Amino acid sequence: GVLMTFPMSTYLEQHLDTRYNLFRLWTIPDRPTFLKQHASSIRAVVGNANAGADKELIDSLPCLEIVSSFSVGLDKVDLGYCKEKGIRVTNTPDVLTDDVADLAIGLMLSTLRGICESDRYVRGGLWKKGDFKLTTKFSGKKVGIIGLGRIGVAIAKRAEAFNCPISYYSRSQKPDSKYKYLPSVVELAADCDILVVACPLTEETRHIINREVLDALGPKGFLINIGRGPHVDEPELVSALVERRIAGAGLDVFENEPHVPEELFGLDNVVLLPHVGSGTVETRNAMADLVIGNLEAHFNKKPLLTPVQLPICPHTCLFY
Ligand code: 8YV
Questions:
Q1: Which of 278, 285, 320 to mutate to test the pocket of ligand 1 (most atoms within 8 A of CB)?
Q2: SS3 sequence of the chain
Q3: What is the ipTM metric for this complex?
Q4: Which of 226, 255, 275 should be mutated for ligand 1, with most atoms under 8 A from CB?
Q5: pTM recorded for the entire structure
């Protein structure tokens, strides 16, 4: 049996349904009874960025062999425990890199140029009363990227096409990178106009965007988050936006999804998206094909398509 933890993709769900005895965790009202009846038949878990496999779930499934995540981020999977229990883990790298990087650029443009706000301006009939306000030029602005993994590099390449100088922070300098390295997030924030979160969420990167970083980014700076909500101290970000201590933010992720701080709803200097970084038909189908391919490989005793190398030491960033 395969346990799916989160309604994520009809395409994936349909395929899994035809191939396996599929259990949908979100439809189960009485989990203890369900586990008593079926736990011993469940050999695989399919999770995603919001619902993975924590120690409690792993312990409730004595025959679990593999966790196949419909995501590149694995912060909802207890990787150390999977290693300890000999459970294999797979994710969906590469196929979503373009979409997430495209959306990061989209957030930069829509935040600096007020694209969403000006759309509302026209729809609200306000143009008849006068021109929309002047906004902020994007091309040529300094872009600072936290995490120079696959997604970070893809964002950098796109921003270079807009003549943006690129700088980055990561735990260690990348000797082969041509981009300017800053040894701390605070120094990166002080050195750029647009600060982008593109690193994995680990204990080390939780709240990597805090009051000090936001103050360093300053009243002309913009924050773009296409990583995870908990990368940011959200109450600190809300007050920085309300008090205009930073110029604006483009956010695709939040600390307590799908709940978004309502103080943000009335602000014109923030763009709010519902975690759609990889949310295109093409990419989600490609991700589903990876999940399906990994499960088929596992059960047919063939090499996994995208295995996650365990153990991940607490400081190793799985580069998105
Ligand atoms: C997930 C994500 O794919 O890949 C990740 O880490 O955050 C998203 O792209 C999405 O949450 C799947 O439901």
A1: 278
A2: CEEECCCCCHHHHHHHHHHCCEEEHHHCCCHHHHHHHHHHHCCEEEEECCCCECHHHHHHCCCCCEEEEECCCCCCECHHHHHHHCCEEECCCCCCHHHHHHHHHHHHHHHHHCHHHHHHHHHCCHHHHCCCCCCCCCCCCCEEEECCCHHHHHHHHHHHCCCCCEEEECCCCCCCCCCEECCCHHHHHHHCCEEEECCCCCCCCCCCECHHHHHHHCCCCEEEECCCHHHECHHHHHHHHHCCCCCEEEECCCCECCECCHHHCCCCCEEECCCCCCCCHHHHHHHHHHHHHHHHHHHCCCCCCCECCCCCCCCCCCCC
A3: 0.95
A4: 275
A5: 0.95
